[in-house]
Design goal:
This protein has 234 residues and is α+β, with helices and mostly antiparallel strands. The protein has three domains: 88 residues, no CATH class; 41 residues; 92 residues, no CATH class. The protein is built from eight helices and eight strands; from the N terminus they run ββαβαββαααααββαβ. The strands form three sheets. Strands 2-1-3 form a three-stranded antiparallel sheet. Strands 7-6-8 form a three-stranded antiparallel sheet. Strands 4-5 form a two-stranded antiparallel ribbon. 11% of the residues are buried.
């Protein structure tokens, strides 16, 4: 009678090209083991699985340790292969698993952040985060999140050197007739826009120069800098 084995196996399916890696220590020779999937276990029931023994190891503690190291190596090599049904290995997770976990975690975090409200109905956690972010300043005394955010948003330019993101946002509001392009808004904005704009203080992210939005934009342009390299500070 043949002795039970420790082996590295690969499960494949008759109907689909997916596959699954694993190791197994037999209770008895040929015990009919077909893998131990969790996330994709339904495929074992729906399709026809086949187990291929790829490498056999000594049925000892040392053989088990060696089998684990070989299993880790082959799984990590295929972990991001869309056909590989292994979702994790030794603390490493596939990109698909990480994306799903991020989406779920983000949703849960967002719900928790919005549970507690202040007297104005604003999320207390969000307000704390905004306050903490605003307190982070660089050597010029400028808001680090503001400078980084502005740089990322306005990074891509068109042939005229204008922010692609800003143009898309403006075109979208014009097409949908919302925001400043909503019926009646333009005329009202014309009456109060001057006062509102004049009360705003903007800062150049290049040298910290302050003034209205237009003044700072012209200041940057005269020096050959991006006119959008500015952040509103009040």
């Amino acid at each position: 009678m043949k002795s039970p084995r420790i082996y590295l196996y690969k499960v494949t399916f008759e109907e689909i090209p997916d596959f699954y890696w694993g190791i197994h220590k037999e209770k008895y020779f040929g015990d009919g083991y077909l893998g131990s999937p969790v996330t994709h276990a339904w495929k074992w029931d729906f399709y026809t699985p086949y187990l291929q023994v790829c490498e056999v190891f000594e049925n000892t503690d040392e053989g088990w340790d060696l089998a684990q190291s070989v299993e880790k190596r082959v799984i990590l090599n295929d972990l991001d292969n869309p056909l590989c049904l292994n979702e994790h290995c030794g603390g490493y997770f596939s990109l698909d698993t990480c994306r799903k976990a991020g989406q779920i975690g983000g949703s849960i975090t967002a719900k928790k952040m919005n549970l507690e409200k202040d007297e104005k109905g604003r999320s207390i956690q969000a307000m704390k985060g905004a306050t903490a972010g605003a307190s982070l300043k660089n050597e010029h005394g400028k808001s680090i999140p503001g400078v980084l955010g502005s740089a990322v948003i306005h990074r891509d330019k068109d042939s005229d050197g204008k922010s692609i993101v800003a143009k898309k946002a403006g075109n979208a509001s014009l097409e949908k007739k919302v925001g400043l392009h909503a019926p009646g808004v333009a005329s009202k904005a014309g009456k109060i826009g001057g006062k509102v704009t004049a009360s705003q203080v903007w800062e150049s992210t290049e040298d910290g120069y302050r003034g209205s939005a237009g003044v700072v934009a012209r200041h940057n342009k005269l020096r050959g800098w991006d006119t959008d390299a500015r952040v509103r500070i009040s």
